[in-house]
Structures are given as C-alpha cells and as structure tokens.
Specification:
Order of helices and strands: EEHEHEHHHE
Largest sheet: 5 strands, mixed
Distance between the termini: 31 Å
Oligomer: single chain
Number of domains: 1
CATH architecture: 3-Layer(aba) Sandwich
Structural class: alpha/beta
Strand order of the largest sheet: 1-3-2-4-5
CATH class: Alpha Beta
Number of strands: 5
Protein name: AAA domain-containing protein
Helix content: 25-40%
Strand content: 15-25%
Shape: elongated
C-alpha cells in the first residue's frame, strides 16, 4: 500500500444492562473463541475515523482492504458496533469506504481529523514510533485535506483547537 500503515478495526459489543445498571462496555471482540451476539432491536453503528498520522488516532495495525471490509460487514451484520480508524488514505480506501457506508443499514458516521503537517510531525517525534520511523518518511505519509466525499462526512480542524 505504498508505504502507508494499514488501519485496524476496533470491535466491541454492548449487552443490554439490567434496569438501573450501566451497560457492559468492556466486552471486546478478540481472536479467541468468543463471538459477539447481536443486541436485540438495535441497529449497530458504523464510525469511520480518519486522519493523518499523529492526528489524534491510535497507531494503525496491518490488514488489507478486503479483510477490513469483510470484518466490518461481518461485525455490523451480527449487531456489533464498529469503529474503523486509521490513516485510510482516500486514494486507496475511498471505494471500500463508500461501499461500507452506503450499504450499512444503521447509522454511519464519517469523521476526518485535519491536523497541520508540522503539528503531526511534532506529535510523531514525541512518541516511541518517532524513534523507529524517520521524520522524512513520516512526512511522506501526510495527505492534506484527504476527504472522501461521503455524504455527511465531518471534517474536524484539530490544528486550531490544540
């Protein structure tokens, strides 16, 4: 994928809580034998969180586009809320993300965190990955105003609010 780190999907299930109690939000889907079950009568949410490296997301893990799409469809299909986050460069992921959002029957939210290049460089240098990935390589990952053009996509200018 042209040197960009691939995104990861954070998957969770929330079971209905007994009256007067908070819901169980600590049940994370893992690679183990536990498979989440659908929450009765609740359409799962799909949240796409995008932005340049060091823009406020966590570090992406490695997967490919088809696997990401399959995981999102599977998990939302069985009632699991999904937050898909990563750099998700529009040039590579636009088609898949457009399909996921347009096919999803429940609420979908797409956010883009727009942080100035120099701010992302400053943040990168302050984290452990800053030692492993040279600044010049990191600068090459930056994609300015990399919006998808998905209906309802929200751009958050994080550079002005830091």
């Amino acid at each position: 994928m042209d040197g960009f780190p691939a995104p990861r999907a954070a998957l969770t299930r929330v079971r209905p809580a007994p009256p007067g109690e908070a819901p169980d939000c600590k049940s994370w889907l893992t690679s183990g034998p536990g498979v989440p079950t659908s929450v009765d009568h609740v359409l799962p949410h799909l949240v796409v969180l995008r932005g340049n490296a060091a823009s406020g997301k966590s570090t992406p893990a490695a997967d490919n586009i088809a696997l990401i799409a399959h995981m999102v469809r599977y998990c939302t299909g069985i009632g699991v809320h999904v937050i898909l986050e990563g750099i998700l460069v529009a040039e590579h992921y636009r088609s898949m993300l457009h399909e996921l959002v347009s096919e999803h029957p429940g609420p979908s939210y797409v956010f883009y965190l727009d942080v100035p290049r120099e701010e992302t460089v400053r943040r990168h240098q302050a984290r452990p990955l800053g030692v492993e990935v040279p600044v010049e390589e990191f600068r090459g990952w930056y994609a300015a105003a990399d919006l998808l053009g998905v209906p309802g996509e929200l751009e958050r200018d994080r550079g002005r609010h830091l």
